[in-house]
Amino acid sequence: MKYGILTAVAVATLSIVLPPVSASAQNVMGIAAVVNDEAISMQDVNDRMKLVMVSSGLPDSAEIRTKIRPQVIDSLVEEQLKLQTAARSKLTAGDKEVEEGFKTIAQQNNIPADKFEMALKQQGVPMATLKRQIKAQLSWNNYVRDRLKNRVNVSTSDVDTRIERMKSKIGQTEYLVADIFLPLDNPKRNKEVEEFAGRMAKELQAKKAPFGPVAAQFSKAAGAEKGGTLGWVQPGQLPEEMDKVLLTLEEGQISNPIRTQDGIHVMMLQKKRTLTAEAIPPRDELTNMIGLERL
Question: Domain PpiC: where (predicted)?
């Protein structure tokens, strides 16, 4: 199992919807939000903001903290929902799973787990907030796998069709794309999300923060935990609004916010290549790819 920098695996699907939540934002008595009778404290929010600053590379200033606080609270509310949903199905990740997840993150940062923990503490990041993030995401993985294990079927015909489609594209340009997606699902918050996307894009374009870790912390799309990568795509695979922008980007360039039907995207074009027969993945890899797409 792979993890992004300071983030655990998160599986997002369209077929599984989190249950309704009674969440109220408030600042009295140190409570930031209440999720189905379970409180998220302002201390929880402050601890997570420390993690976000360290892992995303965003400047640690009062202005940035004010700007990202709503997104941090949203993330904590979403994590609490995932934990509650998994708990009802008795699929909560155990302490051993969480520790293994932490060790994997440490390995990806090329540092022993104990020294990684010490480094985080030295930067003022409480371990509890990272382990809560890992636990919520692994618990959600357990729930998704349990719900969908008998629903995803990739046939030989599916793989054949994909191979033929790829063969027909040989000689065309492919684009390795990473994406940050912010949904516009609350009319009362849409303007705030749009403003945040604009500020985030400017920070990324100015290279004040690395794209991958920012995607891991803020993107709500599948693939966020891998730095927002969408893999190799061809013209026509993305929404029209994104397609048009993609064709104008140079390698390493980051787009301005792109408004689509579902939300706002900020893309990074990582590489371009010409599709060759050798670039077509083997059948077993394609089977896994199609299965993950259907999740």
Answer: 172-271
The CATH fold assigned to 173-274 is: Chitinase A; domain 3 (3.10.50)
In contact, 80 and 31? CB cutoff 8 Å: no
- The pLDDT score that the predictor gives to residue 150 is 66
The boundaries of every CATH 1.10.4030.10 domain in the chain are 28-148
Q: Buried (b) or exposed (e) across 43-55, using 16+ Cβ within 10 A? A: ebbebbbbbbbbb
Q: How far apart are CA 71 and CA 194, in angstroms?
A: 12
- Please state which architecture CATH assigns to domain 28-148: Orthogonal Bundle (1.10)
How many angstroms separate the Cα of 66 from the Cα of each of 34, 156, 203, 228, 266?
A: 20, 51, 15, 24, 21
Residues of the chain under the 50 pLDDT cut: 1-17, 21-29
CA–CA distance, 66 with 195 (Å, rounded to integer): 13
> Pairing relation of β-strands 229-233 and 263-274?
unpaired
Angle formed by the axes of helices 190-205 and 62-88, nearest 10°: 120
C-alpha–C-alpha distance, residues 293 and 148, integer Å:
13
